């Protein structure tokens, strides 16, 4: 309205339209920039959330890994302990075998070389049919029940008694040449029967004979127990020929199949 003339009026209208168009574009750009910024902000928040999730997962994985490392270290330590423990048991087995051999060599002086073996032996326990006595481990190679060692040689037979402590009898007449504790055998009795044949009775709870005494077949020599290295009440019975273990079934009729239980 303040234009000087109509031409001035048109110029001003055109200029005003240019300003309005510019302002419109500027407003649109600001709106677009705002939308872009909001989208970027939303994307950033999503990225931050994802990073936090990944970080949390990483922390959980680290905790799991640390636990697994701890478990593995514990297992390694346990295996080392078990290896050392079983090595000690194996060494004890080897030492026990040596001790027995040395013992028999020592006891040769007590053996009456003139004594003659009287024939078949009797079973060292009372034979029962109720299943309370049974063979738990036969003569020969086996997996050791304590050490777990495979191909471990068992120099006799083990007769289980269901936890009971029945009497133990001399398998044959002879002379008691050892009656005392003996390492992993526990309370142990050895009888010389003549002709180089002897019997060993191990893990006894009580010994009822003395070294140097003479016994007859069937005489009481002790009671079943679990002394020495043993997993429960049983009699370990060994027959030896000239100090070396032999299969007991060649000298005494075994009344129970292996294993009955």
Q: How many H/I helices?
A: 1
Instruction: Tell me the structural class.
Output: alpha+beta
User: What gross morphology would you assign?
Assistant: rod-shaped
Helix content: 25-40%
The main sheet comes to:
8 strands, antiparallel
N/C terminus separation: 123 Å
What string gives the helices and strands in order?
HEEEEEEEEEEEEE
Q: Tell me the strand percentage band.
A: 15-25%
Uncertain runs: none
- Integer-rounded radius of gyration: 46 Å
Overall pLDDT score: 84
Q: Count every beta strand, where a strand is a DSSP E run of 2 or more residues.
A: 13
Topology:
Layout: H1 6-107, E1 134-137, E2 140-142, E3 152-154, E4 157-160, E5 167-169, E6 174-181, E7 187-194, E8 197-204, E9 206-207, E10 214-215, E11 220-223, E12 234-241, E13 244-246
Please characterize this protein's 3D structure.
This protein is an alpha+beta fold. It is 39% helix and 23% strand. The chain has one helix and 13 strands. The strands form three sheets. Strands 1, 4, 6, 7, 8, 10, 12 and 13 form an eight-stranded antiparallel sheet that branches. Strands 5-11-9 form a three-stranded antiparallel sheet, with no helix packed on it. A two-stranded antiparallel ribbon has the order 2-3. The relative contact order is 0.12. The mean pLDDT is 84.
